[in-house]
Amino acid sequence: MTRIATFNVNGVNGRLPVLLKWLGETEYDVVCLQELKTSDVKFPIEAIRDLGFSAIWHGQKSYNGVAILARGRDPVERRRGLPGDPDDTHSRYLEAEIHGLIVGCIYLPNGNPAPGPKFDYKLRWFERLVTYSQSLLGERAVLCGDYNVVPTEIDAVVPARWLGDAVFFPESRKAYAHMLTLGWVDAVRRIHPDKGIYTYWNFSYRGGYDRSSGLRMDHLLVSPSLAKSILAAGVDVETRGWEKPSDHAPAWINVG
Q1: Which pTM does this prediction carry?
Q2: CATH 3.60.10.10 describes domain 2-255
Q3: In what order do the strands lie in the sheet with 251-255?
Q4: Which residues are catalytic?
């Protein structure tokens, strides 16, 4: 069995105690991180290695950034950045092979304020992801990360609250649905088809977090051959209540 998790850390150095505690208390084999907010040279590789992980990363000072960690194995980098726009300098996609599994780590643009230039960039980036993803459908592959998309109303505690947000816009949801029509399988929904599951909550000015703001926008999409072996899926919700947490919680799947 392989355990795969994805976690938007919202600043890998600022949230390092949370990340290290979580890695130390769990037994994931592959971990994708998003929103590192650090340059390559400041990525905390030594602290991560001390917990038994090797890693590759694609950083960017103050913004974006993605990383792939593997326990007891070295991830072999296959790609950084999506094809289709050589002028795109954002660090949002990283891909590796780990023991016969292809792992793509995704930090899709948020797109707010929408409509506007940032939303247009989001849709162009999403279109490039959809196009490129077709080349991986025949592999044992998982494309996981922060998609910044709330696919359906069941993926929000209060859907009406998000109608003016780019993560809930029809165009964003349509692009996500397009990936599913190609053959990608939403692993969490495969295991929990009708359950309200959330991976993000707003920060609260009073401390803690606003549970009514829950959204599911961190996803693990698996290729058809891998979908047959999904054993379990969930979210480590408890991390959201730790001291100085990310606004996201890790989502995970187990595959045979």
Answers
A1: 0.97
A2: yes
A3: 53-58, 66-71, 30-34, 2-8, 251-255, 230-235
A4: 107, 146
